[in-house]
Amino acid sequence: MKRTWLGAVFAALLVLPPAYAEDVSITARSIERFRIGSAETHFGALTFRGGFSYRSPSSRTLSSVSSIRIRDAGRRFLAVTDTGSWFAGRIRRDDDGRPTGVENAEVWPILSRAGRPQPRKGMADAEALAIAGDTVLVAFEGNDRIERFRPADAPFEARAEPVALPIPPRELRGNGGIETIAVAPRGSSLAGEIVIVSERSVDAAGNLLAAFLGRGAKGLFTVRREAPWSATDGAFLPDGDLLLLERRYEGFTRIGMRIRRLPAAALKPGAVADGPVIMEADLGNEIDNMEGIDVWQDAEGRTVVSLVSDDNGSFLQRNLYLEFLLEADAQAAATGASR
């Protein structure tokens, strides 16, 4: 009888909803200049607005941020880490609106379909994030898959729900799977379409595998890859063009990042999408292992580009949050060219 009672208690504990939220203390250092030792503010089509490096006393609690989505005109954010966590909070700003740090930060484990944290890194490696209406979409690498979580305002205790992956998992390379999920604005020519792009998984011609989510095999296309660059995230501009963040790693001192603008008209099934580089940086600038990008509108209606880095849990690397404005003339020129 005693064993039966203990067994029942143990079974009940296994299905209790978890409450794993952890408030995180974060320290930040402002970054006032993007190019080291220079007051220059213009970089390609972007103007540097400000940023900061940040860290938590417990690197095991907060590290390896891989994708971010900015909310409420730059006040709040939701991010994921490749160690299997949600990271949420508010961006602290100075009187001029420049970002200076993070407050009200929380870290939660991303729950599995069984409602539990993933038991190992190969299942927990979250690399891409998007918000589509009341749904949050997350792409995982290692065990390649896309899962949805609801509601979007509080996905932390939601169990994962599977989403059909249009690219066959056998085509996704190890440590080179889906790194971009981006939702096109409703008012753009792509009208809410969801696009995914792989990091380094390529077709026979060497182009990155990509697809429109929800169209199955009919939604497949590719993005031209220029080695040694790999895609690490993407976000749509208001007009439907896709900004693709790319990373170059050729040894510890030869690290770079760039942003390519793929026109909306180039994003279609069966196509090989390509577009111009609108900004590029190396270690002469305040960059690290740049993994995440988002695009949003501030209170004045300006288009803001946010970038984040993944420190890989290493004391040799940094967590960075950077903001740029897309220059109005560059935006207008690109919009006109796409018509």
DSSP summary, beta strand count: 24
| Rg over alpha carbons | 20 Å
Low-confidence stretches: 1-19, 332-339
* Count of discrete structural domains: 1
Q: What fold name stands as the CATH topology?
A: Tachylectin-2, Chain A
Q: Please identify the top-level CATH class.
A: Mainly Beta
The helix/strand series, from N terminus to C terminus, equals: HEEEEEEEEHEEEEEEEEEEEEEEEEH
The description of the largest β-sheet is: 6 strands, antiparallel
CATH second-level architecture:
5 Propeller
Work out the helicity level: under 10%
Helix/strand/pairing category = mainly beta
Quick synopsis:
This protein is mostly beta strands and 339 residues long. The chain has helices at 2-15, 121-124, 328-338, and strands at residues 22-23, 27-31, 42-43, 46-55, 65-71, 76-81, 85-93, 99-109, 126-132, 135-140, 145-149, 161-163, 178-183, 194-202, 208-212, 220-223, 230-236, 242-249, 255-262, 272-273, 277-282, 290-297, 303-309, 319-326.
Explain this structure:
- Residues 1-21 form the signal peptide.
- Keywords: Signal.
- Pfam families: Phytase-like.
- Residues 63-313 form the Phytase-like domain.
- InterPro entries: Phytase-like_dom (IPR027372), UCP031900 (IPR014567).
- With 339 residues, the chain is mainly beta.
- It has a single domain, classed as Tachylectin-2, Chain A (5 Propeller), CATH 2.115.10.
- Helix content is 9%, strand content 45%.
- The chain has helices spanning 2-15, 121-124, 328-338, and strands spanning 22-23, 27-31, 42-43, 46-55, 65-71, 76-81, 85-93, 99-109, 126-132, 135-140, 145-149, 161-163, 178-183, 194-202, 208-212, 220-223, 230-236, 242-249, 255-262, 272-273, 277-282, 290-297, 303-309, 319-326.
- Strands 2, 3, 4, 22, 23 and 24 form a six-stranded antiparallel beta sheet that branches. It has a five-stranded antiparallel beta sheet with strand order 1-8-7-6-5, with no helix packed on it.
- The longest helix is centred in the N-terminal third of the chain and has 14 residues, at 2-15.
- The chain is globular, with a radius of gyration of 20 Å.
- The model is unreliable at 1-19 and 332-339 (pLDDT under 50).
